[in-house]
Every structure is written in structure tokens, then in C-alpha cells.
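Lecture notes, part 5. Sequence design as translation. It can be helpful to think of inverse folding as translation between two languages: the language of shapes and the language of residues. The source text, in C-alpha cells, appears below.
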């Protein structure tokens, strides 16, 4: 009875509660959609601009809104990742301002950026 009351209290409190998985262990909580103010944008890049870039490829004839959103989000995450790595390179030089050489150093240091080697030349 106490367990049912605790479950009801947890369900009514608005906090996510852990549910037991098939093996009896607690399952990982499901990711929740971020709750934000109405009108907040899910993407920081303008989707119309991303769509224009996608349509500039002659091999692309149609591009759905979901695909455009996913491409925009992937571009945001890529820029965020490379900027953080380049900022770490700037901090090693005791600077706060990113320079081109910081991007070059980040590209050389991180294996995931190997495809970018030589693109800034």
C-alpha cells in the first residue's frame, strides 16, 4: 500500500519516476522534450536558409521539413563541437579569441575532423 501511495505521489508531483525494466532493474528515464516559453525556436539556424542550401544541390529534388530540421540541428551540433575544440586550442595559447590556427589545430587534433584537413587552405 505504501508503494502505491509513493508511486501516486511521484506521478502527481510532475517529476519523472524510474520504472522497472524487464530484469527488475530500474530503466533509464526517457528523455523529455524541453519545455520552454511559447515561440521559442527549436533550431538556431534559419530553416529557410538551410532548405535553400539543400536545394542548391542538383541531386536533391524534394526535401521534407523534418529532413531540413535534422540537417539544421546536425549543423548546429557540428559547429558547436568544432568551436569548443578550437576554443580549447585558444585557451592553451592563453587566449580567449578564436583564430584560424585554432581551427587548424582542432582539425589536426581530433580524428573526427580528419575529413576537413586541407579545406581551409
Amino acid at each position: 500500500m505504501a508503494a502505491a501511495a509513493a508511486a501516486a505521489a511521484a506521478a502527481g508531483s510532475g517529476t519523472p519516476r524510474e520504472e522497472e525494466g524487464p530484469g527488475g532493474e530500474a530503466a533509464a528515464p526517457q528523455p523529455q522534450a524541453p519545455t520552454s516559453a511559447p515561440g521559442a525556436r527549436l533550431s538556431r539556424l534559419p530553416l529557410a536558409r538551410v532548405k535553400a542550401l539543400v536545394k542548391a544541390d542538383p541531386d536533391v529534388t524534394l526535401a521534407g521539413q523534418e529532413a531540413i530540421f535534422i540537417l539544421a540541428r546536425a549543423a548546429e551540433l557540428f559547429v558547436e563541437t568544432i568551436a569548443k575544440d578550437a576554443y580549447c586550442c585558444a585557451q592553451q595559447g592563453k587566449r580567449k579569441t578564436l583564430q584560424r590556427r585554432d581551427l587548424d589545430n582542432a582539425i589536426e587534433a581530433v580524428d573526427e575532423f580528419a575529413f576537413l584537413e586541407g579545406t581551409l587552405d
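The translated text above is only one of many valid answers, since several sequences can fold into similar shapes. The mean pLDDT is 78.
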